[in-house]
Amino acid sequence: MAHDPLDDFIAAAARALDLPVEDAWKGAVKANLQATLAHAKLVAEFELPDDAEPAPVFRA
Amino acid sequence: MAAPDTSWSPAGDIARAVSGGETSAAAVIETALKRISTRDKALNSFTAVTAERARARAQQIDAHIAKGQKAGPLAGVPFAVKNLFDVSGLATLAGSKINRAHAPAKNDSPLIERLEAAGAVLVGALNMGEYAYDFTGENVHDGPSRNPHDTSRMTGGSSGGSGSAVAGGLVPLALGSDTNGSIRVPSSLCGVFGLKPTYGRLPRNGTFPFVASLDHLGPFARNVHDVALAYDAMQGYDGEDAACVERAPDSVAPQIARSADGLRIAVAGGYFRKGAFPEAIEAVERLAKALNIKREIEIPEAARARAAAYVITATEGAALHLERLRTQARDFDPAVRDRLIAGAMIPSIAVVQAQKFRRWYRARVLELFKDVDAIIAPSTPCTAPSLGQQTFMLDGVELPVRPNLGLYTQPISFIGLPVAAVPVPLKPLPIGVQIIAAPWREDVALRIAFALEKTGAVAAPRPAE
Q1: If phi over 0 gives left and psi between -120 and 50 gives alpha, with beta otherwise, what is residue B89?
Q2: Taking CB atoms and an 8 Å limit, are B303 and A48 in contact across chains?
Q3: Is the pTM of this model over 0.95?
């Protein structure tokens, strides 16, 4: 089976964030990550102007 | 005094009968407690019953009335709350095992206080999906809440116990929360009315959060008037919730009987038809016919809005629970844990892009409301799936049920629009439709809901037992 860099990313992110990811959970974590990244990609593909403001605006 | 069977009575009727001395709050509460002790064995909608407190409160109400004092528009009405609301003396579970170790809440949440100030009587806390990250109503710790129309089916979630308790005739009124659809999905699958008010309308302090920038609270009931009574009793600013907007209450109960004639209503097309099962299409068509709606509009970029809500939810949810994931990962529901762990790994740029898109999308959708007063769309793509069902087919693609029951609700709550969720009594199972209005126009959504209720096009069907 071809090596999937997303597996490396999950392992590295889990270490960096100090998150325990047991072997039995890895498949489900990966499936959820893939789904969320696919949603993020759909959002990122939408062109917005450089001056677009995020929805929550901090007010002092 | 004889205790009439009030298990299917509207809250408004109960309050009138209690205030008028036809029955007592104590009798109503005893009926509700008995009903819960018998019927909830099958429904599993309650996780705690506050019987002692409810009896004491009912006696206070009856004493007020005996002295000739007004007891409020919800006098003697039993209600229950999703177990993410603080209830004095109970740990606020939020559907989790982890929170069972928390100290009991010292105070009730403000919305409970407001309902009780209007005469309602809290009878307990309700089952929910763990930490509200759920559209199914299943809970690995407490067992699933069950759909009163078919107990082998889902209630929808995450406010599953709220939908089940109201639809099953255990209480006429319940509270839930809705981050991405958690009031509207169980309203749909259980066949009851729900209201997700405008973001910032009702204060959320005293509840366990999920996604601060998306969380809403609201009521469930079996008719529109009861929804309006509860909503009116709960309105009002509270500075303890940073998102609560300082805005004068707008009482809707006196307004719902105004005709919906003249309101410009359109059906949402495009995204809101794609993937819908025939029953969802039929429900919307029935309401379009009842309201004589000829117009269809497209909510722009709804799929992307749903995607952005999905990203924000995963990441904000993960941020909330990060320390618990580090130290108590095995105590989570695995389905919730694995989604949250994945959410913690999403690059921050994705969240900023989602929040930028959110503002763009809000502006475009608000433009639509210059031409229409309300938009109707399905609440869920299908009627209640079976408990344990993992996947369903949406538009020819097999997808997991858990995140996708909220397909049509997420793009709406993403920008905080008010929605009246109304049940269409299809056979054998009901299904809901969203009546979506412009921000702060709950009155418009509920006027349309009331007009539909009068025609019989929407109604909470009484389950066979």
Answers
A1: left
A2: no
A3: yes
